[in-house]
Specification:
Layout (H helix, E strand, L loop, with lengths): L18 H10 L7 E5 L5 H8 L3 E6 L2 H10 L3 E3 L13 E2 L8
Parallel strand pairs: 1-2, 1-4, 2-3
Length: 103
């Protein structure tokens, strides 16, 4: 699958605002206690929080410095960087994300 070139208009954003939807996404992904999960484009941490409460070991990846700083105040493992360029874990992991988009 080819990666589409980035828009020159800026970063796309789509914040997950429904905690009910976040919980449903985590449930549907089959996340279990102890699973290593990457939350790509973690934003404000809506999914990160639900994943953490489900007992997952979560790595929140966020490119926006302000959002990453906010995540660091609430979560232990936050990576500030581009999800396309971060180093992936060497152990098995899952991805649960509300990926940003730019129309």
């Amino acid at each position: 699958m080819a990666v589409r070139p980035r828009s020159t208009r800026g970063r796309g954003r789509h914040f997950l605002r429904s905690s009910k939807l976040a919980a449903e996404l985590v449930r549907a992904a089959g996340i279990r206690r102890g699973d290593l999960v990457l939350d790509l484009g973690a934003g404000t941490g809506a999914l990160t929080g639900v994943l953490s409460r489900a007992g997952a070991r979560v790595v929140a990846v966020e490119i926006d410095p302000e959002l990453a700083a906010g995540l660091r105040q609430r979560f232990a493992d936050v990576v500030e960087g581009d999800a396309l360029r971060v180093a992936l874990p060497r152990e098995p992991f899952k991805v649960v994300a509300n990926l940003p988009f730019d129309g």
